[in-house]
Structures are given as C-alpha cells and as structure tokens.
Amino acid sequence: MPVSTAIGGTYAVRYATDSTATIRVSGDTLTVTAGDGFRIEGASCTLPTDAVLAVLTGSGNHYTGTHWGFNSGTCTSGSAYASTADLNADGSVSLTGPTGTHLLTKTANAPALAVDLPATYDVTYGTAGRATAHVSGTIVTLSVSSPLRVEGAGCDLPVGRVLAVLDGTGTHRSGTHWGFNSATCAPGAAYSSKLYVNSDRSLTVTGPSGPHLFVRRESVPTQPSVDPVGTYGVHYGTAGTAVVHRADTKVTLSVGSGFAVEGASCSLAPTTVLGSYTGTGTTLSGTHFGFNSTTCTQGAAYSSKVHVNSDRSLTVTGPTGPHLFERR
Fold first, then answer.
1. In angstroms, how far is CA 318 from the centroid of its own chain?
2. Are 85 and 30 in a shared domain?
C-alpha cells in the first residue's frame, strides 16, 4: 500500500541519532512515541521503546500540545514544554520541542482498528511490566498485571495494584491516576488523568510521572452480565482474599483470608466487613470502612463505589485508594 500523506504512522527522524518515531491518532489527539535506540541530544542513554515524546491536539494540518524533556542520565520523563506539530504537504511532520524542531519523514501508514479496551498491555514506567484494562460500563480501570516499578521508586507495584480509574465513552476518557509512595508503593495522591484510545488499539495515559503508552497484547475474556457474588484475591497492604455477599439489592464485602490494610501493623480477621453497598447494575454505591492501624478495629465510614467489570473483577474505591478484586 502506498504511504499516504495523512498524519499517523511510522516516521524516520533524527534527534541525537537516526531512529524512528510513531504518531498514534486518537480522534483529534496525537501521541508521538520513540522507536528503538532513540537518543535525545545531550543524553548518555537511549529512551525506552515507546516512550512518549509528545501529546498534541488539533485538526487539519496544525496541532499544539506538550513535548517532554528527559533526564540526560536516566532517560526518565522530565519537564513539559510547549510544542507544535505541523503536517506538511508531502506527509512529513515538523515537530517542535525542548531541543529544537525535528522533521519526521513518513515511512509507513498507521493501522486503523476497532476499539477493544478489555485487554492486557505492555507498558514501561520506571521499569517494563504489564497492565490490564478492565471495563465496567463507561468506567475503565487500569491495573498492574505483572510487577512494575514507577519512576523514582525503590519497590515494585504488586499485581492487582490500580494505576488509574477513568470514565467516558469513545476514544477519550478522563479520571484519576494515582501516585505511589516511593518506599512502600502504597497508593498516594490522586492526579488528574486522561486516556486516549489510539487507532492501533494502544492507549496513551497521562499521570503524575508524565504520559505512558500502553501497547496492546491480547483481549481479556468478558461476559455481558456479571454476578459479583464470590471470592476474590485482593492486595491492600498485603495480599489476601475477600468475599462478596448479596441480599437482594444489598451487597456486603468481607475479609476471606486475613490481610493488612496500608499502614497497619495488624491483619484484618476473616469475616471482618470491609464495606456495604446497594445496587444491581455495574456500579454499586455505599460505604468502605477505615480501620485502626494498630488494633484493626473498624473505624470511620468513607463514601465508596464498586464497579463490576466485564472480566468478572471488581474495582472498589475506599479510604486508601482503589483496589482490584480478582475473581477466584
């Protein structure tokens, strides 16, 4: 197939060295990512493959947005700089950024695939790992499915740790991406986040350490209707299990095998009630309890949601952030 002049696809480019970049398209938003062996000017390292260089929004031939700088020694994402991308008549793209303007010469067209969000993805934060997108109505939960380390951390996020929860339809979603304690990897502050579903089924997800590209691996089996009653694996401060009980429209979450909540020196005993909810659809509303960090007695009640995902997992919000409950 001839290489078109439309924006999106694979491009040859030179920053410090000759390499390639990919422009991924999500509606009016472009994500520019690095290819293999990509080195920026002044750096002693190469960027991870698929590191996000820029995210821009526009239409026609002109786009504006942000181009990230990178640490010259570690190649982690750094400061954000104003950027423009101009689509030239020959299909090349002029991209401005912190180290000047670069010309991207198109070498291959972009694939156009149907949106298929419930899936596993390869992603690189501080280290490479995998994530899963879970869908509950319009809600998308991104969780860790193989251990990965966020930038600047001395620990790995455990499997099941929720990275982000976003809401919306179509190719653009908005929500929250959590930060994590660099020593314990417990959930920390909540940051505004965007999710862009690109035409090649990859995802661009913004967060506290910059944007990241999620490269789709394979679909996750789903069901059109899910009964949440059952036993689930869960990881709060430590790993354990939880049980979902239903009485008509009322749902109770309790501890199965004991686990500690974040910051606690004790474990919750089996049958301890985590939360109580009401509803019959894919989103249940109610209360998640906090617990004393030394005695594990039940404490204050916090507003909470349970999102019943199409892959039979649950996303449960609470006082220490969201948690993924994985069906056993």
1. 19
2. yes
Please answer whether residues 33 and 54 qualify as being in contact, where contact means their C-beta atoms are separated by less than 8 angstroms. no
- Secondary structure class of 257 (helix, strand, coil): coil
Residue where the block lists tokens 């504006």? 64
Region 277-292: mean pLDDT is 95
Burial class (CB in 10 A: 0-12, 13-18, 19+), 203: buried
Q: Are 235 and 158 in contact (CB under 8 A)?
A: yes
Domains in the chain, number: 3
Amino acid 31 reads T
Distances from the Cα of 295 to the Cαs of 113, 263, 264, in angstroms? Answer: 52, 12, 9
Burial (CB count <10 Å: 0-12, 13-18, 19+), residue 90: exposed
Task: Quote the mean pLDDT of the chain.
Answer: 95
pLDDT in tens, 41-83: 999 999 999 999 999 999 999 999 999 999 999 999 889 999 9
Give the global pTM: 0.91
Residue 174 structural domain? 119-219
Number of neighbouring beta carbons within 10 Å of residue 252: 15
